Amino acid sequence: MKKFLFLLLTLFFLTPKYAQNTEANETNQENFSLEGALAMFKNSTSLEDFERAINEENNNVNNLDLNNDGATDYVTVEDFIDGSDHVIILSALVGNSEKQDIATLNIEKRGNEEAYLQIIGDDDLFDKNTIVEPYDVYEKTIEDKGPSILDIIPARVIVNVWSWPCIRFIYAPGYHLWVSPVRWSLYPRWWKPWRPMAHTLFITHIHKHRIHFHRTKTHIIRPHIKYLSRKKARASFVRTRKIQHNIREKRHRR
């Protein structure tokens, strides 16, 4: 009976409805799925594969059209190494000489076979401290009470991602730092931009990515000093749009 109740509670924990209710910091301007990016990273064997996966239309990760040209923006991947840690930077190409940082995938190695990661949305596109990480669910027992529906509950634990193929790839001997060769108007042959879908439709496609990833406001990865000194890629019109959006939100709340 306990196992059955645990399964019911776990399923409730993982439903899109529950995820939607707990993700209070999601805004209607999000058109890039951080959870989807992590799902693609988990299944990729290299950073080149990862870059291709997040730019494939059928994977429902990218719905960005930051420059409003009626077509999706190509997202590049660049690895930045700080000691044994990695910061993987995702940026959108929005003009001949302009890029916009979207998110950083922060990876910290804590042992010979131990690594953890979080993806953090850029403040120009996401609410501050929009952090997504992989998690697992295990059975937690409360022993100081008598038998009841409350003595077994699903609890979330942070995941060691050392077994992920892409993690093994970037920590393998002889790994060459990946910096995307793609530039504005010089795109790979396989990539065909598509017309972005309405945001209300896009969010119905990305719920599938949220099953094994959740949002948190807690940073578990130590700051990367060298990365923090890097100048961010920011398109001026994106920042202006975010400010205008925040003003409208404040007026709406009054």
Please characterize this protein's 3D structure.
The chain is an alpha+beta fold and 254 residues long. It has one domain. Strands 1, 2, 3, 4, 5, 6 and 7 form a seven-stranded antiparallel beta sheet that branches. The N and C termini lie far apart (49 Å). Mean pLDDT is 84; it is low at 4-9 and 11-28. Strand 1 and strand 2 form a beta hairpin. It is built from eight helices and seven strands. The protein is 29% helix and 24% strand. Keywords: Signal. This is EF-hand domain-containing protein. It comes from Flavobacterium columnare (strain ATCC 49512 / CIP 103533 / TG 44/87). Residues 1-19 form the signal peptide.
Summed up:
The protein is of the alpha+beta class and 254 residues long. The protein has helices spanning 2-14, 16-22, 34-43, 47-54, 165-170, 199-205, 225-228, 236-253, and strands at residues 75-82, 85-93, 99-111, 114-121, 131-141, 152-158, 213-216.
What attributes does this structure have?
254 residues; alpha+beta; 7-stranded antiparallel sheet; 8 helices; 7 strands; 29% helix; globular
